[in-house]
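Aim 2, interim progress: modelling of the IPE-bound target.
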Amino acid sequence: MSNYSLNAVPTHIAFIIDGNGRWAKRRGLSRSLGHKAGFNNLKKIVKLCFEIGIRYVSIYAFSTENWNRPEKEIEGLKEIFLQYFNADKFIEDYPDVKVNIMGEYSKFGEDFKAIADDVIARTNDRDKYILNVGVNYSGKDEIVYAVNRMIGDGVTRVDRSTIDNYIYTSGQPEPDLIIRTSGEQRLSNFMLWQCAYSELYFPKTLWPDFKKKELLKALDVYSKRNRRFGQIKEEE
Ligand code: IPE
Ligand code: IPE
Ligand code: MG
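Predicted structure of the complex, ligand included:
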């Protein structure tokens, strides 16, 4: 159980980890070093979320649009992903966590696919926590992927729950809170189906500087939000 005295802890939290490039630029470093700092921070923040008792954590690591970046930056990110998803390390870093990679991750090559498949298989029977990571992910493509799988299964009638069952996060609750760092106020194609009733939070902090204090502040802000889901609350 959580040692943190927080009201209304989200069941599912999602992060759009933005600002690595600007963080690096301010320090006269390469963008790749910015991503490195970003992923070091990511490891700590994700761990902390699970420690706090949040069962589902989603991360936007690489979008389908990010292929338009310089080759060198993409190569740097791939190196980071290869390390991050190394199964031996992952299993040690994240006890009880099952990893779910969202997106056509094989586009990162055979070597990455092998590492990703391995960590997915070796964490598959864990059920306490789930870490969803978007790698070559797009919310629109996720819906297309779901529709094509439905067609493949011969589905002829669809309702909301059918789509819920065919997207990458099937069986999971939708994000209660989506945090995007760096001051940008958009979703950039992240979890478009799942974000329907998510609370959104846009701190100005660049991702590598988004530490424990910032996370606790975000959770405090979240706990004060009034989630109405279209209803009228009696007490207001
Ligand atoms: C991280 O931040 C996003 C990833 C693709 C990992 P950015 O690289 O977008 O940083 P900025 O927006 O250029 O500062
Ligand atoms: C969104 O960040 C994608 C990830 C965090 C992986 P971007 O920095 O790519 O988004 P835009 O281009 O500013 O919308
Ligand atoms: Mg960005």
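DSSP finds eight helices and six strands in the chain. The beta strands are 12-16, 56-63, 97-102, 129-137, 177-180, 199-201.
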